[in-house]
Structure formats: C-alpha cells, structure tokens
Amino acid sequence: MQRHAKTGGSSLVVEDVGKTFGHGTDEHRVIEGLSLRVDPGEFVCIVGPSGAGKTTLLRCLSGLIRPTSGTIRYGDEPLTRPHADIAVVFQDYRGSLLPWMRVRDNVAFPLEGMGVKRAERNRRAEECLHAVGLADVGDKYPWQLSGGMQQRVAIARGLAYEAPVLLMDEPFGSVDAQSRFDLEDLTLSLRADLGITVILVTHDIDEAVYLGDRVVVIGGRPTTVVDNLQVDLGTDRDQITTRADHRFTDLRTRLLTRIREAQAPAERTPARPEPKPAPDETPGGGTAKDGIPKDSPAREKTARAVR
Ligand SMILES: Nc1ncnc2c1ncn2[C@@H]1O[C@H](COP(=O)(O)OP(=O)(O)OP(=O)(O)O)[C@@H](O)[C@H]1O
C-alpha cells in the first residue's frame, strides 16, 4: 500500500473534556477535565482501569459522540461529528463484519456511504486485503475465516477509508495469543509503511508498551489523564527481544503501578501491606510513593506532562 497523501493528518487536541451520561439521579460523570494531544504520525496507546472511560474517550475522538464539556479539535476544526480523516476499528469483528457479505464487500461496504465509486471501492478493498496478508480471501465469507483473519478483515476495512488517523478500540481482544502477536506486528508495520497516526485503547499493559510511542494512563473518579509515558524503545520492535528488554519491564511496572493508583480504593486488591512511612516522608519533603523525591524537578516535569 502507498503512503497516504495526507500522511499523519493533523493533530488531535482534547481540551478539558468532560462526558456525563444520564440525567438527574441517573447522572454518571465518567470523564472530567481530560486534556490530551496526539500529533501526526504518533502511535499512542490509552490504558486505564476497567470502566474508566477508554471507549468513551475513543468514541469522542471519533466524533461518534459529543463531549458534555470541553473541546476536541482536529487541526483547526472543532470535531463535532465523524470526520473523513478519522477511521475506527472496533473490538469485536463478530459484531462488525456482515456474515452475508463476501470479505471484499465487507471491506468496501462503508465506502459506498461515502460516495466512493464501485471501481475505486473494489480497488481499495483489494489493496487493503493485500496489506493485511489476506489477498486470497476476498471471495470468502467472514464465517469461513479464523478469528484472527476476521480481525485482519476489520483492520483492512479501517484502512480502506485511507484516513490518516486510525482509532482502534481493543482491536485484538477477541483473538488467541499468537494471532494477537501477529496482529500487533501487522499494525506496527502498517503504521510504519503508511505513516498514519494510531490511537489504540487496550487493557493489555504489555501490548501498550510494545506498540506505543507513548502510553497515556487514564483513571480516577471522574476520569482524567493520570500519566503520560514516552516509550523509549525505538521503532524496530520484536516480540521476543523487545519484551525482554529491561526498559520494557521498567515501563510495564510503572504503568501497572499508575493503573492501580488510578483505581478507586474499594476496587483495589492490596498487593501487600502499606509500608510504614520513613522518617523523611514529611509533607513537602522526602520521597513520595512513586519513588520521585517530592521536591524533585522530575516531579514538576511529570505533573506538567499530565496537565
Ligand atoms: N451510552 C452510555 N450510557 C450510559 N453510560 C455509559 C454509556 N457508555 C458508557 N457508559 C458508562 O461509562 C463508563 C465508562 O465506560 P467505557 O466503556 O468507556 O469504559 P472502559 O474504560 O472502556 O471500560 P472497559 O475497560 O471495561 O472496556 C461505564 O460506567 C459505562 O457504564
């Protein structure tokens, strides 16, 4: 596949966003004061405790739902509805592929609603199926393929929009472990080949570190950004050596710690008893829970990044 003309597209900027569902006694404030910026060509993974609002945030980014407060901008434009530059791949291929349509038509189908002519729809479907390693299955039906292959079809359909931004919501959650590794590597190579921006929601911390240039942790009540980790593992990643790298395991430890901290205390399973405070753990000085001295410039830097 060729690089898109609009490689990477524009920045997505989330400013002070809140999202509340329901009204009155049913009101549920899920997200509040959440700010985030994703620049063209970045691969950003979003992790957080279950129910934190990861899918809600991704749906806001896709323009499918509107935030209750704050703004989301794509470049200079306010994002208030689905945008031609932003494609979405959902988690469950079983719910998103149409069983009565051949694979090629499943990939091409959404383009019809966008006014793309038949010949161009078919060209894109063939090209995208080729890109995900399924050049030979266009005539089959989804139910004739394995789960991993069906999820590749769902990715091909996302690519067929030729959008510079791809949002992925737990895209590999329904497949076996080996297919998951293969799909992760496929996503990395598509991103490298096409130069697209990817924002991927996942429950899997290792997956987030393996894929992302950056991992954003969301959590708290209501949810906001609680950490923003740059992943310093280069672009040449490998399922065996990258995952064994001490930088990988250090990042995973930090992420797990931050996600546990972001959970409400009642939801947390204490790993071990809280240690007694050391003599120098006095307010305004000494070392905090995360190991960074309270008056360290690094703490101020982290706080700024999260803000
Ligand atoms: N349309 C809706 N109406 C009412 N509440 C909703 C709606 N969509 C999401 N919620 C609520 O918002 C909260 C966050 O849901 P969301 O699915 O975004 O979380 P998540 O972090 O993706 O969860 P998980 O990790 O378990 O998939 C949940 O309490 C959910 O019940």
Describe the structure in your own words.
It comes from Streptomyces aurantiacus. Residues 12-245 form the ABC transporter domain. InterPro entries: AAA+_ATPase, ABC_transporter-like_ATP-bd, ABC_transporter-like_CS, ABC_transporter_ATP-bind, P-loop_NTPase. Residues 260-307 are annotated as: Disordered. This protein folds into two domains: 12-278, Rossmann fold, CATH 3.40.50.300; 279-307, no CATH class. Helix content is 35%, strand content 20%. The protein contains ten helices and ten strands. The protein has helices at residues 54-62, 93-96, 103-112, 118-131, 147-160, 177-194, 205-211, 241-244, 246-262, 297-306, and strands at residues 12-21, 28-38, 43-47, 69-74, 77-78, 86-89, 165-169, 197-201, 214-219, 224-230. Helix 6 (177-194) links the parallel strand 7 and strand 8. Helix 4 packs across helix 5 and helix 7 (205-211) packs across helix 9. The radius of gyration is 21 Å and the shape is globular. Residues 280-294 and 296-307 have low confidence and may be disordered. It binds adenosine-5'-triphosphate.
